[in-house]
Amino acid sequence: MIQESSNGSKRMSTVELKRLPSFDFKAGGKETSSVDCAVCLENFKMGDKCRANCRHSFHVRCIDSLLLKTPVCPLCRIDKIVREEK
Ligand SMILES: [Zn+2]
Ligand SMILES: [Zn+2]
C-alpha cells in the first residue's frame, strides 16, 4: 500500500531535499574522475557534493533543481532516489 501525503502532492520541498543522502566525491587521489554528472555531463571533481541513490550520479546542485519538479531520477525514471521517511 502506498499512501499519498496528506496534501496529495508529489513535489518535494527543499527541506526534503536536504534530507536526501549526499556525499563528497573522492576520486581516489586524482583531481578528476571518469564519472560524469548525468545532468551537466561534467566530470566530478574532488569535493563535489554528489547524490547517487540509483546507478546514476549527479551533482547535488544539478539534481536538486530537477528533483524539486519531479522527484525521480531523470534517467531511470524510477522512484528510487526518494525514500519515504515517516
Ligand atoms: Zn552536474
Ligand atoms: Zn537513475
Automatic annotation (TrEMBL):
Main location: membrane
Pathway: Protein modification; protein ubiquitination
Annotated SUPFAM superfamilies: RING/U-box
Recorded topology in the membrane: Single-pass membrane protein
Transmembrane segments: none
Protein name (record): RING-type E3 ubiquitin transferase
Gene Ontology terms: cellular component: membrane
Keywords, ordered alphabetically: Membrane, Metal-binding, Transferase, Transmembrane, Transmembrane helix, Ubl conjugation pathway, Zinc, Zinc-finger
Pfam families to which the protein is assigned, alphabetical: zf-RING_2 (PF13639)
Location in or out of the cell: Membrane
Species: Morella rubra
Gene Ontology molecular function, alphabetical: ubiquitin protein ligase activity; zinc ion binding
Reactions catalysed: S-ubiquitinyl-[E2 ubiquitin-conjugating enzyme]-L-cysteine + [acceptor protein]-L-lysine = [E2 ubiquitin-conjugating enzyme]-L-cysteine + N(6)-ubiquitinyl-[acceptor protein]-L-lysine
Domain RING-type, residue spans: 37-77
Domain of life: Eukaryota
Enzyme Commission no: 2.3.2.27
Family: Belongs to the RING-type zinc finger family. ATL subfamily.
